[in-house]
Every structure is written in C-alpha cells, then in structure tokens.
Amino acid sequence: MSIQWFPGHMYKALKEIEDSLKKTDILIELTDARLPYSSSNPSLGTIRVDKPCIKILNKADLADPSITEIWIEYFEKETGIKPLAISADQVSDVNQIPALCKQIVKTGKLKNVRAMVVGIPNIGKSTIINTMAGRKVNKVGNVPAITRHQQRVGLKGLDISDTPGVLWPDIDDEIKGLKLAASGAVSSSVFDFQDVAYHTGNYLLKHYNELLMERYKLKKEPSDGTELLEAIGKKRGCLKKGGILDYYKAADILLLELRNGNIGRISLEKPEDIPVETIEKSLLNE
Ligand SMILES: Nc1nc2c(ncn2[C@@H]2O[C@H](COP(=O)(O)OP(=O)(O)OP(=O)(O)O)[C@@H](O)[C@H]2O)c(=O)[nH]1
Ligand SMILES: [Mg+2]
Asked: Is 35 within 8 Å of 271 (Cβ atoms)?
C-alpha cells in the first residue's frame, strides 16, 4: 500500500524547517515509540546533517515497554543522537528535555537554547510544548495536521518552536505505510481502513494474541485478520441492513482501540525489522 499524502502546507513546512535550521541549536525529533523507525521522516534526517538531536520516542505509555528499551539501546549507538522515551502529557517526563538540551548545547548562562520540535503529524509535538508550559500554548487534537504554522515560545531556558507535522511525498514502503496508517499519523481519507485493519490484525494475532483474546473476550483464536474482524464485529454488534456484518465498522473499532491503548501496550516494530538496505545506506553515509 503506497500512501500519498503530502498537502501543500507540509511542503511549505518542510522548507521552513530547513530555513529555520540555521537559527536552531538542537532538534527535538518526535517519533512514535510503537514504531520509532517507520515514524521517523527520512527527509528530516537528510536536512539535519550534523545538528544535535534528541530523538523522542513519544507515546511510550502505549508501547510495549520491553521493546522500547531495545529501541533506546539501539539509538544510543547513533552519533549525535540522544534517545529518550516519554509520554508527552507527563510533566516529569517532559521536564527532562530542557536540562538535556542545555547539557548537549552549551550556551552561556544568559542565552536560551534554540530548539525546534519536528516530526510526523499527530505524534505529540504540540502536546510536549503545552506540558512544558503548564498551559495550552498550542492547539492539539487526535487527528493529523492540526498545527499549520511554526510557533515559537520561550520556556525553561529554551526558545522552542513547534512545527507542523510533515510526512514525505510518497510513502512507497508498504509495511511502513501500514504502520503509519495504523498509528494515526496519516489522514484516514488516503488509505483503505479495512485493508489496514486486516494487516494490523494479522500482526496482532502473531505478536499480541493474548491481549486480543482478552480484550474481545474471544473463545476461539481467529486464524487471520478477516476472522478477527468478523469476531470483533459479532461481539460488538457491527451489522448492516439485513444482518450483514459491517467490516468497516469492525475495522474502525480495532484501529481506534489500538490507537487508544485499549488493547494493551503494543509495539509495531523492533530494530531487527529495519530493512537491511536502509542500514547499509546509513553506513555508507557515515
Ligand atoms: N497516549 C498518548 N497520547 C499522546 C501523547 N502525546 C500526545 N498524545 C495525543 O496525540 C494526539 C496528537 O497530539 P498533538 O500534540 O496535537 O500532535 P502534533 O504532533 O502536534 O500533531 P500535528 O500538529 O497534527 O502535526 C493528541 O490527541 C494527544 O493527546 C502521549 O505521550 N501518549
Ligand atoms: Mg501540532
């Protein structure tokens, strides 16, 4: 499944991020702790060059904690990157960020560190700034593309900029596209809900079978994503006229409950899932 969702404001936002980089000391890149590889925008990696970067694995409250630990160890090995797993709405988590920025960028005492928060849509960029401020500075919402313009605010010794979420023009890696769609980073108007729920269901049956059985009170293990959607649909009364099962409704329930963490703490990838050619390419660039 190739996803194309690169509206004009994202193109403009990426250009603005590139321009603002000269006046930035450190990047705070947000990824989704459930899919830290697939939710990292390769375009941001390219324009970052050697700017120091705190790589936030956000929504850690939704991810499988043992897998998040593996990711942190993995990113610790990358040069110029400091990984940190947090939940953007937790004050104690977010309050680690200003100290970390000052530790990495050594400005004089009187100078604020200039930080820019970047990442894909719906990942929690604006939430981090609101939590840091202790009030609603920026608009947030559980659909992608809420923030449309850069906004800068002075907080805790940082001049911190919020930026609009940016994807890349053509997400042609099918598996990446599925995970991004399942996580809520992509507008639901550009992918097939049932297709994404079917594949996500297959993954969950393989890796988080017990959580599914418990959540949907299933007696018999579904053999694949379609059977899972049928089982969810029957349990939750998803019926169309004439008693026909409404797969779309069942798919909606599965994806919504996955995104909200109702099924449990779930990770969608591990470092070993990174395609070998990507690792080879990044080694060549070092
Ligand atoms: N469970 C959980 N939800 C979070 C976390 N951080 C943010 N959210 C939720 O994720 C949704 C998106 O948050 P935003 O802060 O608007 O995301 P954004 O990255 O600014 O999104 P855009 O402006 O659209 O690019 C909101 O519903 C937040 O409440 C987190 O750590 N855990
Ligand atoms: Mg935002």
From this structure: no
